[in-house]
Amino acid sequence: MLTLDCPYCGVAAEETELHGGGEAHLKRFGPASSDEDFEGYLFMRENPKGVNFERWRHVNGCGKWFHAARCTMTLEVFGTYSAQTTEPPKALLAKIKKKRPQWPGYGAEK
Amino acid sequence: MSEAVSALNNASYAGFVEVTEMGLQGMITLRGDLSSAAIKKAVKTAVGVGVPEQRKMAMADGKGAGWMSPDELLLLVPYAQVEKTVTGLQKTLAKAHFMAVNVSDARVMFRLKGAGAREVLAKVAPVDLSSDAFGEGDLRRSRIAQVAAAFWMSGEDEFTLVAFRSVADYVFGVLKIGAQPGSEVGYL
Question: What is the CATH code for A3-99?
């Protein structure tokens, strides 16, 4: 059973209260951008083996979107953080790096 | 004006816990910046209690305010006063960014009363309802079996629950089955 801490409610919400929203921190490019940029935004996903950043919604709860960092291999949850950000908080990245020294770091795969 | 009727018209069921539909209840959804002085003042004026803390229900004299999300409160007032309260909120908050909507007729309210009330809810909601984790005045917005609901502990061995009116019968049915004599778990 997946349990994530909702950063808005402060509760450990379990899977059935949540709804997954796919990969986090996707960038949508502006009106003058190329077709490739738009294609990337729409379809291209990292799908990493290991550390992954995701969007989740506390749908049966406060109804807010938030972010979660998880491991796709072990399903370990590293932490959750607010949706009002364009990249993961530094403290969380440091925590992940400590647990997964081989991980190249946020954004390194791109 | 037509006569207002609640979803199940005060239906009740006496199992090892008493499940009662509470009849008409004034409910207002108030959204805005809960930390702002304007909202704090407006809530105090409307229901006589302060803005509740995270996941808390504040009640006084049949009125109250419940924390639903970082920017949303559920205000409870007697059904007859609901229009007046909404108008009052609109007046006091005229300069603020907010939303106040009368949702009384879109919701249903139940009360669970009895020594096993925690148990009945724990059967159908993914929430830790042990007495250490959930006490009087605590509120949780979650789900009841398949549908969204919010509930709070309104007294000793007593829970109050709100859900959407359209699923009132379903919620009542689920709670009735949970409260059937002989189905006590005896854990909580």
Answer: 3.30.2270.10
